[in-house]
Design a protein that fits this description.
The protein has helices spanning about 25-35, 50-55, 90-105, 115-120, 150, 165-170, 230-255, and strands spanning about 5-10, 10-15, 20-25, 40-45, 60-65, 110, 125-130, 155-160, 175-180, 185, 195-200, 205-210, 215-220. It is α/β, with parallel strands linked by helices. The chain is globular.
Amino acid sequence: MKPLIGISCCMKAFGIFNTPNHAASDTYIRAVDLVVGGLPMLIPAMGQAGDPAAFAGRIDGLVLTGSRSNVQPTYYDGPPNPPDLPEDPARDGLTLPLIRAAIARGVPVLAICRGQQELNVALGGSLDQKIQDLPGRLDHSTPVDQANPRIRIGKAHAVRVSAGGLLARITGREELAVNSLHNQAIARLAPGLVVEARAPDGTIEAVSLPSARGFVLGVQWHPEYDFEWDAISRRIFGAFAEAARAFAAAAPASMAAE
């Protein structure tokens, strides 16, 4: 049986009437379908109206998606986001407790871009805003030429992989070339999280949670953009897939024991 993979949604306005919609990019659905071999299930950005424990109790894996929006700084006692950085309170209100509920149950978690930032905040860490404006930091934000998809999702810089870590075991590499489309990044690392990779400017590019019951990996880049031709991106989704399938196979026995 295919594992059921929850995919976090954003709240976005669509159409001439700016109707609120729950949305996730097709790239995540395709990666879950084609690489993970799972059944994609979109988790709506319901805010406080959602039931994180119920969602966590029904899925076999959780993909936390990237987004243009930024985590609200009230969740990590940070200064207000600049006016030009959009927020998504409906997403924050559900995903942050959902992350904690999923990890507590042992659900495998793959956190991508904003998802990594959410993972860090949910577990007690903080974020830097507009890191491209901080001294000594690279410009990690979306390239100006967004019309050209190869430029927008092309490799932007290298990351150094932590020796002996989860990412090193998955990729078999000491260094990776990654794309880069983010304004925020981890500042104070949450308790329990460990750094799996850093950019040349010191920005934390990947994290894991060794103490978790299940697989937990966060990456600041977007492996869902190029999994069809990039072997490393496929390995990341493949490792998540293996964990989700194992969790799904064990879930009936654990539920019976409860």
